[in-house]
């Protein structure tokens, strides 16, 4: 077996890339990723908070930060290396309460005017490094999530909200990025998934692969996918991710 190449790293989006949307990683995919860690270094780069990433990525029962060298939650605003917290950023400290409340109030008012097949709870979820806006409500069931995703694909609910936010807050320095099936991530300019790369600058890494499913402009994987420091790969499912990795690392 070839030695571990510490100068190469694979960075992975989670939802839709390593797992089905909001589902737990399969035992087969978990086993494959552990095999990959013998070939190169591995990092998870999710927009979700650490609790959600752990729920999806802990097939073995061991906490996700113990399973992978780097876990970058909230786009890397919360960063762990070898199980230890190495960085945590706060959107409240960055913007201040007054500006954040103006946006949150407008977002809630805008979502209250939208008619959907169903609405549940938690329409705005506050995280350390970003605000997650969800028209259907994050407490929706899996069936309701998929129902909204189909409705959104036809009626462009999230796209219209993003345009409304951009028009209302042109000078606030916020990015409004559609992520996953049901929500919009809101964070300061530059706090996208590229933020995770700054934690790797002094790690002796020469080759950065990134794998994600939302790599088109407006998707939450686009910026890191298109960054000149990374070799970006668009995937359509966890199976497609595995197929592409096998081509790169296990072909011979």
TrEMBL record:
Mg(2+) 2 binds at residue 230. It is found in: Cytoplasm. It holds the Pfam family PMM. Its cofactor is Mg(2+). The keyword Metal-binding applies. Pathway: Nucleotide-sugar biosynthesis; GDP-alpha-D-mannose biosynthesis; alpha-D-mannose 1-phosphate from D-fructose 6-phosphate: step 2/2. The keyword Magnesium applies. InterPro entries: HAD-like_sf, HAD-SF_hydro_IIB, HAD_sf, PMM, PMM_cap. Gene3D superfamilies: 3.30.1240.20, HAD superfamily/HAD-like (3.40.50.1000). GO terms for molecular function: metal ion binding; phosphomannomutase activity. Alpha-D-mannose 1-phosphate binds at residues 22, 127, 138, 145, 183, 185. It catalyses: alpha-D-mannose 1-phosphate = D-mannose 6-phosphate. It comes from the Eukaryota. Transmembrane segments: none annotated. One of its GO terms (biological process) is protein N-linked glycosylation. Involved in the synthesis of the GDP-mannose and dolichol-phosphate-mannose required for a number of critical mannosyl transfer reactions. This is Phosphomannomutase. It comes from Paralvinella palmiformis.
């Amino acid at each position: 077996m070839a030695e571990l190449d510490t100068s190469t790293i694979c960075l992975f989006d989670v939802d839709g890339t390593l797992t089905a949307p909001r589902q737990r990683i399969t035992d087969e995919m978990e086993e494959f990723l552990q095999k990959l860690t013998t070939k190169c270094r591995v990092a998870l780069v999710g927009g979700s908070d650490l609790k959600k990433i752990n729920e999806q990525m802990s097939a073995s029962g061991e906490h996700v930060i113990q399973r992978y060298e780097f876990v970058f939650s909230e786009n890397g605003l919360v960063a762990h290396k070898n199980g230890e917290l190495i960085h945590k950023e706060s959107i409240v400290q960055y913007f201040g309460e007054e500006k954040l409340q103006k946006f949150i109030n407008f977002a809630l008012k805008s979502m209250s005017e939208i008619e959907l097949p169903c609405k549940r709870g938690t329409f705005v979820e506050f995280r350390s490094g970003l605000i997650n806006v969800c028209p259907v409500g994050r407490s929706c069931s899996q069936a309701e999530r998929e129902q909204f995703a189909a409705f959104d694909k036809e009626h462009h609910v999230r796209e219209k909200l993003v345009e409304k936010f951009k028009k209302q807050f042109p000078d606030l320095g916020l990015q409004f990025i559609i992520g996953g099936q049901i929500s919009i991530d809101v964070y300061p300019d530059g706090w996208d998934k590229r933020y995770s790369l700054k934690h790797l600058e002094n790690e002796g890494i020469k080759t950065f692969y990134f794998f994600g499913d939302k790599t088109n402009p407006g998707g939450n994987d686009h910026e890191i996918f298109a960054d000149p420091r990374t070799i970006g790969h668009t995937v359509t499912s966890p199976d497609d991710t595995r197929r592409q990795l096998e081509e790169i690392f296990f072909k011979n």
